[in-house]
Specification:
globular, binds the ligand COc1ccc(-c2nc3ccccc3n2[C@H](C(=O)NC2CCCCC2)C2CCCCC2)c(OC)c1
């Protein structure tokens, strides 16, 4: 049985990523807002665009804290952020959805999201993804490292220096693999399942623009930042 040892450097890297991830909480907790009141489809759409806009800004700050990111080619930095923003947003939503809440609140949250205005055809794939994330019972380290790994995906469109991105992503994958073995000793395939979620995440983001334009209302307005990041308007 291979003895898994996290080195000093890997501990330091994990600490930096987790601290940056903790700073990257969404300003006001969207789940609390959704549990407080029922909103109209228009209000829900506005809430989504507000949350997503602040989430993009928060993800930029998180990414800037990833060691080595700011030394990448500037255009590649933009390409990585643009290419991963939607995935990071759905990963974040799944993590918000997987938070244990007082009795029944998770059911209310699910109900509110189902009725938020998102069109029927996208509800099942979205909740399938959320439930698959819940089933993994990810630790905070795993969530933070998985988010960083998603952002540092070398094969995003327009990335020029793949190698430089791989050099940043590999140490994250190494330490995530070790963290998974240490935190889920009974599940030798846990790390593989975790990375499998990223494949499911890419299919979900495939529907993303349509999920927005098919929101059950007319005249969908987006912030300039979201027009940049989302392929809408
Ligand atoms: C593109 O279509 C959709 C549909 C649903 C969601 C979604 N899934 C959620 C799961 C847990 C809690 C919130 C959730 N949300 C919206 C939201 O506010 N998402 C935030 C985005 C930034 C990161 C934190 C979550 C809600 C849905 C209900 C109506 C108001 C917006 C979503 O989040 C990408 C995108």
């Amino acid at each position: 049985k291979e003895k898994v040892e996290i080195t000093k450097e890997q501990k330091a890297l994990t600490k930096v990523i987790v601290e940056a991830y903790n700073r990257h909480q969404i300003p006001q907790d969207v789940a609390k807002k959704l549990l407080q009141d029922q909103y109209s489809v228009e209000e829900n759409f506005l809430l989504l665009t507000e949350m997503a806009t602040s989430q993009v800004q928060v993800i930029v700050e998180f990414t800037k804290s990833i060691p080595g990111f700011l030394s990448l080619d500037h255009e590649d930095q933009i390409a990585l952020l643009k290419g991963s923003a939607v995935e990071a947003m759905f990963l974040r939503s799944a993590q918000v959805f997987s938070k244990k809440m007082p009795n029944g609140h998770n059911g209310i949250l699910e109900e509110r999201i189902r009725k938020s205005g998102i069109s029927e055809e996208f509800i099942t794939p979205m909740f399938n993804f959320y439930k698959s994330i819940i089933g993994l019972h990810m630790s905070l380290e795993e969530q933070a490292l998985l988010t960083a790994i998603t952002i540092l995906t070398p094969d995003r469109p327009y990335v020029k220096d793949h190698q430089a991105v791989e050099k940043l992503q590999e140490p994250m994958l190494d330490v995530l693999r070790k963290v998974c073995v240490l935190q889920h000793p009974q599940e030798p395939q846990y790390f593989a399942r975790l990375l499998g979620r990223l494949t499911e995440l890419r299919t979900l983001t495939h529907y993303h623009a349509e999920m927005l334009t098919s929101w059950r209302m007319n005249d969908h307005k987006f912030t300039p930042l979201l027009c940049e990041i989302w392929d809408v308007q």
